[in-house]
Amino acid sequence: MTHVIRTEQETKKLAGEFAQKLRGGEVVFLNGDLGSGKTTFVRGVAQSLGFHEPVRSPSFTLVNRYKVSSGGINEIVHVDLYRLKTPDELRALALDEEIGRNDAIVFVEWPQNAQGLLGESTYSIDFVINGDSRAITIRQQSLTPHQPM
Amino acid sequence: MRVLGIETSCDETAAAIVSEYDGSFVIEKSVLASQAKIHAQYGGVVPEVAAREHAAFLFPLLEELGVPRDGAGIDALAVTYGPGLVPALRVGVEAAKALAWCWGKPLVAVNHLEGHIYSVWLDGEGKIQNPGTKIQTTQSNSVEFPAVCLLVSGGHTELVLMRDHGEYELLGMTRDDAAGEAFDKVAKLLGLPYPGGPEISKVALNGNPRAVNFPRPMIESGDLDFSFAGLKTAVRVFVEGGEVGRWGGDLDIADIAASFQQAVVDVLVSKTLQAVKKVVPRSVILSGGVSANKLLKEILESELRRVAPEIPFYVPELSLTGDNAAMIAAAGIMRAKRGAFADPLTLVADPNAKLN
Fold this sequence. Notes:
CATH architecture of chain A: 3-Layer(aba) Sandwich
Oligomer: heterodimer
Strand content of chain B: 15-25%
CATH topology of the largest domain in chain B: Nucleotidyltransferase, domain 5
CATH superfamily of chain A: P-loop containing nucleotide triphosphate hydrolases
Mean pLDDT of chain A: 91
Helix content of chain B: 25-40%
Strand order of the largest sheet of chain A: 1-7-6-2-5-4-3
Strand content of chain A: 25-35%
Radius of gyration of chain B: 21 Å
Structural class of chain B: alpha/beta
Structural class of chain A: alpha/beta
Shape of chain B: globular
Order of helices and strands of chain A: EHEHEEEEE
Number of domains of chain B: 2
Shape of chain A: globular
Low-confidence stretches of chain B: 126-141
CATH class of chain A: Alpha Beta
Strand order of the largest sheet of chain B: 5-4-1-2-3-6
Number of helices of chain B: 11
Radius of gyration of chain A: 14 Å
Number of helices of chain A: 2
Mean pLDDT of chain B: 88
CATH topology of chain A: Rossmann fold
Number of domains of chain A: 1
Order of helices and strands of chain B: EEEHHEHEHEEEEHHHHHEHEH
């Protein structure tokens, strides 16, 4: 479903609603250009699951982690493959230790840089910039949370 | 005291030996995998995202450093335990634990950001340096506390109050993107190569910093936090919105780069001055990769001279602004002198390590 969003608050509200669907074990791909709202969306999910420290862009740090305690979810793993030049470098991130953990949600920005090495996601969310607004489209890719890599 | 420092928190694999005599540090030797001769010998170019490659490069680096296999002459080991990328940090931490255990030498766990702060206590390789490379001249020959530290790099933008060696308080930090990251992403928007910081500064030399009035995010927020995501978006909207053409072709990439750089520098300088006003420190320290930015150094220095001429201002030597192990060894020496050792049986890498 596509949502047209005009403000950061609306992005966070949508993220909060999305967070209610999460059970643990999901892998969420975030697709969209620089500044399209991917990190803001993760911030919204993290806040609605009870994380109240700053959620910062992992572009340089590659992987950020947010401890939460909500239902069976203990951690949000926020991955950003923006700096990856070749999928080979994915090994560096040891994501096989994160994907498939049933107490974590793994968000991946710039998943196309993995060139398919991460497998299927549970959800795929597209962020498209249209002037001052954003079109956010959330698609469920599989009915069950992610299987271990 | 003679300390072996090891740093593998993100992209760089680094090792160094630093000695301390009566409070002065000497970098005996400091090596980086990205620059070392080991490239050709051990597998070519180090990938940009190097994490697991640290394992392949660390011991060849120790060989290049000339560390004897029995650890003779090394008094202690210092290793970065966080913050950073877990698989990357682990390589350094596990190697340091193993060496400390085998050699029966004390181990010190150093926070990466603390290391960056200590880079101002160092001078280039082989040079004896009294603590503190001073830009402003004062009577004092060492960094006096409390010190306000602005740490800016690709992954960090933080204002830290250093009350004494090993005593830190976070005054403010970025809520979204780090300043260095904003440089890299804006460079990409402008079609400039990676790493974007030096490229933007180079191109900006030919541009007008007042050509475009980009936003100065949170400059008047009343706290000491930063935000650079909105500035990045403002540049994107400007570039993609055809504003450049609308100005009749007068504006080019150099003007945009110069205006963007000016906006970032204005925010960093303004917040640092606000911190100085709030805590009235006895020193100001600028460190981290972005401390290599000439405009930032010059404006921060001149503004500090204007509002607080009595407070000395310290920046690291250019070769020590990026990630390196000499700064980790220096921070480790100060921790070792206080007896703040880590247990090689239990130390673990902490990706979210906080300064304390």
